[in-house]
């Protein structure tokens, strides 16, 4: 894979998004409620800035993903970023659901109620679950397969040097399609085997969940929105990549559709009409969804349009000098559009719906993110590159997002108690400690990546340990 072209101000925006995300969650969950929910000027500013964290994070994700995908397109028409993008979508959805899942329910499997629930699971539900999980595992393994497997290479080596002289028999054995079929069967059986192992506890747990726990497990988070947004962008790219303007037009129309659907879906009760796993994607009415598709998907699409635009702008010689002015102009334009729309609402409806379900809030956030991008672009003129640790952390935002949530909600909070909170100075100490932990996590990720991944690292560690024991 060729080294992706990078834009410094995009990396600066990712660093800022990471900082806003980590300090926002840490402050929200550790600061004393009397201070956090108070009305001091400082806390008002903090709450206002925190409202831009998710839109900022989503727009930057969509922009970086689209720009890198376009910039890594090879002359022969292939694009290694497609496979990476699909793996990223699967990873985002996996962690999005896992982070919301009530882990404590797992212990119910070993209770009498858990055994009873297992015996009551229907055959149709069991088979359909095994099929879906096995299919997902098969597709994931297929996407991760980059080269010919060791087993296939070994078969080729054995048969090519064997005593077989019959041309027809040798042709049958060495036939590429035949070997691929064997590999397909092996991968399929492996997927079904692990699908059965995963589906059994899944069926038990899903039947043990109460309605409230089920809604919590299926609520839509930032990761779900980014995943579905990136998947949509990827599909549009695969269909229209030879006609970039059509690709931009389709994304723009989807953006307008999301914006127009926001007032229509915001207050509609869809819980009783749609399956429980689908309704949280459409709105938060009667669900525990924090980030439904409408309007949050608009920010990913807005970022995608920004990425397409930057893929053209970066080709200009004076790109670094003028991009800040262009971003500032766009940002101010969206802010003006938001203000104009809000005044029209007041004039036409008699009141403002800005903080309720108005598209003007979306335009306002677009303007703020683009304006901040302009500031980052001007700042990039003063520096040549980011410090190494900042680049490393900005390129692992997904894992740092997952990591800091696990630290807060699965480790620290259960130990100190969910109601334990602190004053401002100690909360600042918690924020600094969280950034230190995230830096250490980044170093661990880099260490593991350099050694071929977790599985290879664990395998090499066991092999080294066994060789030392044999030496003794």
Give a brief outline of the structure.
By secondary structure, this protein is an all-alpha fold. It has a domain at 103-208. The chain contains 21 helices and no strands.
Largest sheet: none
Q: Fraction of residues in helices?
A: over 70%
Q: State Rg.
A: 26 Å
**Count of DSSP E strands?**
0
Distance between the termini: 44 Å
Oligomer: single chain
Tally of helical segments: 21
Unreliable spans = 146-152, 154-165
Structural class: mainly alpha
Shape: globular
Q: Strands, helices and their partners?
A:
Blueprint: H1 8-30, H2 33-36, H3 41-50, H4 53-71, H5 80-100, H6 112-120, H7 123-144, H8 150-160, H9 167-174, H10 176-208, H11 211-218, H12 222-240, H13 244-265, H14 279-282, H15 293-313, H16 319-349, H17 359-380, H18 388-394, H19 397-416, H20 424-450, H21 454-471
């Amino acid at each position: 894979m060729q080294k992706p072209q990078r834009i410094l101000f995009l990396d600066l925006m990712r660093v800022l998004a990471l900082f806003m995300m980590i300090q926002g969650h840490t402050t929200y969950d550790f600061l004393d409620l009397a201070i956090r929910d108070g009305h001091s000027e400082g806390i008002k500013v903090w709450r206002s800035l925190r409202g831009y964290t998710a839109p900022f994070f989503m727009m930057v994700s969509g922009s970086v993903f689209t720009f890198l995908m376009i910039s890594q397109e090879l002359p022969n028409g292939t694009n290694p970023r497609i496979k990476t993008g699909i793996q990223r979508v699967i990873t985002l959805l996996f962690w999005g659901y896992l982070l919301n899942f009530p882990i404590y329910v797992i212990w119910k499997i070993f209770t009498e109620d858990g055994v009873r629930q297992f015996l009551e699971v229907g055959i149709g539900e069991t088979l359909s679950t095994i099929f879906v999980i096995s299919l997902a595992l098969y597709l994931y393994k297929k996407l991760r397969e980059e080269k010919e497997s060791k087993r296939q290479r070994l078969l080729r080596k054995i048969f090519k040097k064997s005593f077989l002289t019959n041309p027809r028999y040798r042709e049958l054995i060495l036939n590429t399609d035949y070997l691929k079929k064997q590999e397909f069967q092996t991968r399929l059986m492996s997927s079904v085997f692990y699908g059965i192992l995963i589906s059994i506890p899944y069926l038990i747990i899903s039947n043990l969940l109460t309605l409230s726990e089920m809604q919590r497990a299926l609520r839509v988070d930032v990761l779900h929105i980014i995943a579905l947004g990136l998947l949509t962008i990827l599909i549009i790219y695969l269909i229209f990549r030879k006609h970039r303007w059509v690709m931009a037009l389709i994304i723009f129309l989807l953006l307008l559709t999301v914006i127009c659907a926001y007032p229509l879906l915001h207050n509609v009760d869809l819980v009783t009409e749609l399956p429980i796993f689908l309704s949280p994607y459409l709105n938060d009415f009667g669900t525990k969804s924090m980030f439904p598709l409408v309007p949050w998907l608009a920010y990913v699409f807005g970022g995608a349009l920004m990425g397409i635009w930057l893929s053209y702008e970066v080709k200009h010689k004076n790109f670094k000098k003028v991009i800040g002015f262009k971003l500032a102009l766009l940002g101010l334009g969206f802010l003006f559009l938001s203000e104009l729309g809000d005044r029209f609402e007041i004039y036409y409806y008699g009141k403002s719906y800005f903080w309720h379900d108005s598209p003007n809030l979306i335009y306002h956030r677009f303007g703020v993110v683009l304006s901040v991008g302009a500031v980052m672009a001007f700042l990039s003129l003063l520096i040549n590159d980011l410090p190494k640790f900042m680049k490393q952390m900005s390129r692992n935002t997904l894992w740092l997002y997952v990591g800091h949530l696990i630290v807060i909600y699965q480790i620290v909070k259960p130990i100190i108690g969910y109601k334990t909170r602190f004053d401002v100075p100690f909360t600042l100490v918690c924020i600094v400690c969280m950034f230190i932990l995230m830096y250490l996590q980044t170093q661990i990720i880099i260490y593991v990546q350099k050694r071929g991944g977790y599985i290879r690292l664990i395998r090499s560690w066991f092999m080294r340990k066994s060789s030392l024991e044999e030496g003794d």
